[in-house]
């Protein structure tokens, strides 16, 4: 597995070694030892999630507060998304900074987003199946959402037009300046 530390500390882009031949391909999508060696994260993942989204659907920017904060290891099984992490660790030198990567079934990249980051993605393909492991289970009372279009953060989404949002993301999203952060 090839690992690349991204512009914000603790966020990693992981590229598995792909074994391809005329029959198709094989790759190891997760190995606890290799993952821990790369990220220094040694806790266990406790929940796997799968979402299916149409083109233009934006899910995010979600996070959970301590003590139920979640780290996420994300990947795309079908389609393509623009995946985004925003540093919401108030004492971090990169607080409020964001980074984004294209994750797809074609490139098979994964992104490790530790606790302390808001996370979201925008579906770029006709549909996308998005898979992610989390370090804690969903906790509605600890869940928060930052506005996808917060001008203070300034995420440059690669999409013309207004994305499709859930009613919950519309009603609960806050600006970073008024959000509960780490």
Tell me about this structure.
This protein is mainly beta and 182 residues long. The chain has 2 helices and 13 strands, in the order E-E-E-E-H-E-E-E-E-E-E-E-E-E-H. It has helices at 32-39, 167-172; strands spanning 2-5, 12-15, 19-21, 24-26, 47-54, 58-64, 72-78, 80-87, 98-104, 110-113, 117-123, 127-134, 143-145. Strands 1-2-10-7-12-5 form a 6-stranded antiparallel sheet, with no helix packed on it. A 5-stranded antiparallel sheet has the order 9-8-11-6-13, with no helix packed on it. A two-stranded antiparallel sheet has the order 3-4. The protein is globular. The two termini are 31 Å apart. The relative contact order is 0.25.
Number of DSSP-assigned strands: 13
Q: Terminal Cα separation, in Å?
A: 31 Å
Q: Roughly how many Å is the radius of gyration? A: 16 Å
Mean pLDDT: 97
Quick one: overall form? globular
Largest sheet: 6 strands, antiparallel
Helix/strand-derived category reads mainly beta
Strand order of the largest sheet: 1-2-10-7-12-5
Q: Give the ordered list of helices and strands.
A: EEEEHEEEEEEEEEH
The percentage of residues in β strands lies in: 35-45%
> What is the tally of helical segments?
2
Q: Could you give the topology of this structure?
A:
Elements: E1 2-5, E2 12-15, E3 19-21, E4 24-26, H1 32-39, E5 47-54, E6 58-64, E7 72-78, E8 80-87, E9 98-104, E10 110-113, E11 117-123, E12 127-134, E13 143-145, H2 167-172
Antiparallel strand pairs: 1-2, 2-10, 3-4, 5-12, 6-11, 6-13, 7-10, 7-12, 8-9, 8-11
